[in-house]
Structure formats: structure tokens, C-alpha cells
Amino acid sequence: MSNDLRLTIAEIIKRPLFQHAQVVAGHRGLSRPVRWVHVLETADTGQFLNGGELILSTGLGFGEEKEKRLAYLTELIRRKAVGLCIELGRYIPSIPEDMLELANHHQLPLLVFHQPVRFVDITQDLHEYLIHAQMQALRNLEAYSRSLQQLSLQAAGIPKLLQHFQVAVQTQVFYYAPDGSTQFAPVVPHDVAVEMSDLMRSHFSELDSSEAGVRFLSLSATRQLAYQPVMAMGHVLAYVGIVLYERSPDEYLLLTLDNTVSAMAQILMRKMFVEEQALATENRLFDDLIANRSIPEEQMRSLLGITGSGKASAYHMILLSFEKPKNLAEDSLPPHDLTAIFRSLLARHRFRPFIRCMGHRFYFLLIEQQPLADSRRTLEKAFRDVKRIMTQMLGTDVQIWMGVSRTGKRLSDAGRHLAEAEQALAFFQESSSPFFADLGLFRLLFHVPSEPVLKTFISDYLGPLLAHDQAHGSSLVHTLRVYLDVNLSKQEAAEKLFIHRQTLYHRLEKIEEILGEDYMATQNRICLEIALRAREWLRKEEQHQ
């Protein structure tokens, strides 16, 4: 299937109607493709050009006046016309040197007819060719799309699809995966492959991974890359592109690239989901950790496929909880379908990820593939990408909370670190940090049994206030919580509670009456802070049980 249906100026001058035409300037632009033919006599009508036109003129609008002819030619260049044909005669008997210099400088082919020609015959001849070429391109594109569907049904791999793409466009094509692996069709020499791979690795690593669509990378004055990301659920899986030599991409090339990218996205997604189906062992592992069942070190290594007796790499347990928008469609993407995307994303951040989705929660065990200089910063960056994808797929109104454990060393302690992530998640809003290490004093609650010690502690310090709120329908406990959160600032507390300061004074007087006038003494205040947060934590724990 021939895809190069462009009509260049070099091909046009071979047609019968141009047998007496002469190229007098801009020879280096003869390879430019012509999109349409237009008769244009004055610079004032240049606004009707869209770019890519071959212009026909008798010189009527500019003649031999230097200022007018240079303004005319400059306007054609600015409007991205690809060539100018002038019929020499009454209005312009010869092409002045200044026009030749300007056309050569901008590589704009300038053709002259030394005898009268019928512009209507030229436009009819070239328009018929261009329309036929466009129709043929559409037929070729439709045939290519059908062949892609057949390859997808045959479960063809990326190499076969890439070869099929190359046959369709008849130029060098490539496939680049974010892990650094690159495939070329046809195969290029080893040194060229290494050079191109290094160039792509440097360029693609700096791109905004959330932007789709075709992009271009100039390699030299005569060579450029046209490429497009293969995306799934807002995540870049790979890049597919074309190497163009002395050629700009036409619609056929770009549409063929787009169809190929869509087919590759389906193949990669199907492969990822098949891999997810095979992770039953991983799910059982998380089930045991969530159920707080102890797993010996050797058994953990075996379940995770870690061989050898060497020291295990550092790891992190992360718990992500989310609440989907209420207006989300019933047939929207199931959350567990995101695990394949998350796995690919986290692997790119140099983690070996193990993931489990249960309800509105994701459980992550991330093993560092190599020691990270700043694991916290890497985790923050990785989960910004996770949140971005969840927002794209579930809507901007999705609410997301996270809890991150301390760095683990022994895999047999993974259950304990998961509990740390659980506590960090419970206190996420209070601490404004998802990291267990940032909980400060509230980390102690992790080691206090909720029954009976913690509940008794809460009752001792908050019991009278809780009883008063229940009996009178008041909100003294919440008032105390806000008052402590703003470090005893009455003005800020009143604003956060949306009440007048005088109302706040009455509430604080009532709290003092119930708890005693020394309730703000340092020791009592600390105990009240702990009791308030412990109460909220226990309430969240009970909701998840």
C-alpha cells in the first residue's frame, strides 16, 4: 500500500501543463507538498491562504513596482505558501533580482511561464489530482485500520505491529518504552540505535506525561521526529514515532500514527490486565497482612519471589483510601482496574510494587529496587502521579487520603508497618502529613490497646463533655477541638466555628464549668488533645470494621 500520495512541486513541473515552465529560484524547496492551488494577484488577499498553496499570478497586482512586489512575495512566505508561478508578459516581463534573492533565501520555489497559459486548466488538473489523492489516502487509512483490528484479534505483539506500521508509512519508525528499551523498524545499525535511544531517553524523561497528541522533535535542519504517547487512563505506557527526512508530516501519516498508537494501547492494556489476573498469590499475601496474620521472613520472601539469602531491600507500606464523587456514572471504571496502571507507574519510580485493591482502598507494598537517596521525596513524587491518574479517571471531586509507614527492613514486619500506615491514614487530616513518622506524640496511640485502656482514657477526660452534648444537643466537644487546634486563638476559633466571639466565650465558660478551671493547664491540655484524637481515630476504626 503506497502512502506517499503527496503532490510536490518537483512532481508538478513534470506534468504536461508545466512543460514550458522554468524554475528560476527556490530550488531547495521543490520537495514541498502542495495542498491546493490558488490564483492570487495582490498581497491584500493573502488572508485567504491556509498554508500549503501553490500560487498562480500574472503580476497584475504588483507589476514592476519594487515595494509592491516584495510586499506580495513576503505575504506569501508569511502565509506559508509553498510556491509561486508567474506568467511573464504585460504586467511583469521578467523577474527582478530582488524577488529572486528573497525567494532563494526562504527556499520558496519561483516558477515562470514564458508564454500565456490557462490558469483554469492548471487549477482543474491539480485539484483533480489532489482530490483523488485525498480519497485514496482515506481508503488506505480505512484499510490500515481494518488490518490493525485483525492484528489485535490475533494477539499480535508490539514488534509485529511496529513492522506493520512501517510498511504502511514507508519510512523509519520506532517504539520507545519508559524503561529505556527501544525498537526500530526497519532495524538500524547498533551505533545508530544506541544514539537514538539515548536521545529519546533524555527527551522523553523531561516531558509532561499527562499530555496526549502528536509532538515533534527537530534533530537537524533536514530531519525530525513525529511521535505520540501511547496512553491508558492518563498514564504514558510508551511512545511511537516516525523519523522524517526532508519531509513534513501529512494528514495520512499523522492519522496512521494515531491509529497505530490506539492499537498499541489496547495490546499493552490487555497484556497488563492478563498479568494482573495472574497475581492471586499477591492478593493472598495482602489478605494475610490485613488480617494481621504473622508471616515468617522466609515465607514472605518466597511469596514475593525474592531469591537468595542476602539482606532484603528497604520497603514501604502505603494505604490509600478514596471516596468517589456521588455523581460518578454507575458504569464508570472499577477502581481495581487501576492497579495495572499503578504497577507500571510505580515501577518507573524504581519500586517493585505489590498492590491490592479492596473496596475503596488500595494497599501498596513497595520494595526499593535499589537504595534510594531520598525515599520520602520519591514516594511523594510517585503518589502525586497516582493521585493525578485517579483524578483523571474518577473525577476532580474524588477525595483521597493516604497513610505511609516507616521504612521497613524485615519483610516479616510488614504487618506491623501496615498498621502504621493505617494509623497515619486515620490521622491524615489532623497531621496534614501522610507519613507515620510525622505523627509525633500521637504515634503513642499505636501502642495503646483500644480496649479497655484507650476508651477509659477518653471517658476520664472527655466523658463529662460528651454526656452534656448528648443530653442538651450541644457541641462543646467540637468547640474544644477547634479551640485547641487553633492554639487557643478565640478569634480564629470563632471564625472556624462560624459563630460570634461572644457565643464562643459562653461555650468556653461552660466547658470550664464542666471540666474545671484548670482544664487548660499544660498536663490537662495534652491529655485532652490525645483524648480528642484518640476518640476520632476509634470512630474511624469502628467504621472500617
TrEMBL record:
Record-annotated PucR C-terminal helix-turn-helix domain positions: 476-534
Name of protein: PucR family transcriptional regulator
Record InterPro entries: CdaR-like_regulators, PucR_C-HTH_dom, PucR_C-HTH_sf, PucR_dom
Positions of transmembrane segments: none
Record organism: Brevibacillus porteri
Pfam families in the cross-refs: HTH_30, PucR
Residue span(s) of domain Purine catabolism PurC-like: 11-130
